[in-house]
Design brief:
globular; 6-stranded mixed sheet; 5-stranded parallel sheet
Length: 393
């Protein structure tokens, strides 16, 4: 077991709120994290049918067993229990009394936000960041190997073959969460849809095109994208809007949290296959965006991420809003820096000066090489420094 970056945020939240809720995808390590952080708390999983039925039939009796608190795992399996937790912690609002975990984003967050508003901190544990991968002592030195292996803890902890792991993950967890979140009758169509989404990672999300290629309606494609987000498999990066111009793209980009899953869905079966794949650049971009997203969540910060693209196609892959300053991040998978690397950033600067005059702008390029470069306009960082402090804050 390794120490996860979110652990300090988890401990800090438990010193303030009577309940801490940890959400995230299945097999991201939520249970391991919570049990390691709070080893003295009783642990109860609501997955076994008998325990779940007890919590559903007699919630007061169930909670009476754990009056001093507990870790309640997969709490979305007994959603009514949350309302009784509200009464319990209102009577005894001791910090860090209960720790809840759950994997179904939409249903869990809706239930918790309705019943436990002001009583719980919400944290999201996503797949491994690069510096967490390093702690396993088996980190690939090759970028393509890293992207292909992905960021699932099981791949590094158990040292299983990534192809075998992601095949099992899709069959076991993706299909299970799909059935629990949305009544999808044609599972084969949904599987085809997920594969088509992987082929569109880091690209503008066109639901009409995606639906047509899958053979489903536009509205259905939108609902199925929500399922991917609810399962923490994918996320939509929204475009940055500026009132001073209408020439900015208003369509979100689609990203995945785990490039290993993307590679599996695209049929990429080795690092060497990825090295020559036409979507390699998009996969690298989605990895950079996900690394920044995960780092900010682990630090207890809202992601506050967007991207910039104007009508001429000039783009900044990730824009981080840090309050009084923007961080413009460009991701380039090549090992050399192209001559036009700063074109999108300069276009963004021109609009930012007018639209957000109170904001400063910092610039950073993450590329597929191994050496940092000192440039007056932007920090040039190799892929191995994607978790640098300057990107997280």
């Amino acid at each position: 077991m390794i120490i996860r970056n979110i652990r300090s945020s988890l401990r800090k939240s438990a010193q303030t709120f009577p309940i801490v809720t940890v959400t995230g995808p299945r097999q991201a390590g939520k249970t391991t994290l919570c049990r390691a952080t709070f080893p003295d708390k009783p642990y109860v999983s609501l997955e076994p049918p008998d325990i779940r039925q007890f919590a559903l039939d007699d919630p007061r009796g169930f909670l009476d067993r754990y009056r001093d608190g507990a870790i309640l795992d997969e709490v979305q399996r007994a959603p009514d229990l949350v309302s009784y937790l509200q009464v319990e912690v209102d009577a005894r609002p001791e910090p860090g009394r209960f720790v809840l975990t759950g994997s179904a984003n939409l249903s869990l967050i809706h239930t918790v936000s309705q019943s436990l508003a002001g009583r719980t901190a919400m944290l999201t544990l996503l797949p491994l960041t690069l510096d967490e991968v390093r702690r396993f002592g088996d980190m690939p030195n090759d970028l393509d190997e890293l992207l292909w292996r992905g960021s699932s803890p099981a791949v590094f902890d158990r040292r299983v073959d990534p192809g075998e792991w992601y095949a099992s993950y899709v069959a076991t967890y993706v299909e299970r969460d799909v059935r629990s979140l949305l009544n999808i009758g044609n599972l084969a169509a949904f599987q085809r849809f997920v594969g088509l989404c992987a082929g569109r990672t880091s690209q503008l999300l066109n639901l009409s095109s995606l639906g047509a290629d899958t053979g489903i309606r536009h509205a259905t494609a939108g609902a199925w994208i929500s399922v991917l987000e609810a399962s923490y498999l994918a996320w939509r990066l929204q475009p940055l809007h500026a009132n001073v111009t209408s020439r900015l793209v208003k369509t979100p980009k689609l990203h995945f949290f785990d490039t290993g899953l993307v590679c599996y869905l695209l049929g990429i079966r080795s690092a060497d296959h990825l090295r020559h794949h036409p979507l390699r650049g998009f996969i690298f971009e989605t990895w950079v965006a996900a690394e920044i997203h995960k780092a900010r969540l682990n630090a207890g910060q809202p992601p506050s991420l967007s991207f910039f693209r104007d009508g001429r196609g000039r783009e900044v892959d990730v824009v981080v809003d840090r309050g009084d300053r923007f961080l413009a991040v460009e991701a380039k998978s090549g090992a050399t820096i192209p001559a036009d690397i700063f074109e999108g950033m300069q276009a963004f600067d021109d609009i930012a000066k007018v639209a957000w005059p109170e904001h400063g702008v910092d610039h950073c390029v993450i590329y597929g090489g191994n050496d940092a470069q000192a440039r007056s306009y932007a920090a040039i960082l190799p892929w191995g420094d994607v978790c640098a402090k300057s990107l997280r804050e």
